[in-house]
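Researcher: Here's a chain I'd like modeled. Treat it as a single chain, no partners, no ligands.
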Amino acid sequence: MAGASSGRPFDRRRWFTARALVAHAALIVWVPGCAIASWWQVGIGLSGDSLGWIYSVMWPCFALFGTVFWWHFVHDDPDSIGRRGLRRLQDAAVVDSAGQQAPVEPDVREIALARAEAEDPELAEYNAYLAALARDSRPGSRRER
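Model: Modeled as a single isolated chain. Structure tokens:
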């Protein structure tokens, strides 16, 4: 049985990590809390306050949002997303057949910028100008500014 998002076989261990157990506990508190708040707002709406009807619909939406957040929190690998994932990609290197380390493939933003510069020569000129400014204007102290 394959996992829907990762393409890897189903892994039961992900459900019992410390991170997942905290997420399970939060969901167990969050969803019933949202249901209670929604029922409370239905009572307010029945008492004549029309704003209570809006809130009675919003609380189930909050519960749904919490459930989606829980799903991603359990299934995302913290070492492949965010700052840790970026650092891991930057530190990783591919060893070629000669035993030398080659840098990892370029960043997606660099590829997009190179494509945009290839299509727009004015953008390439402006980016070169900005790079020259950044390279040439490095103040030594606050007094020089």
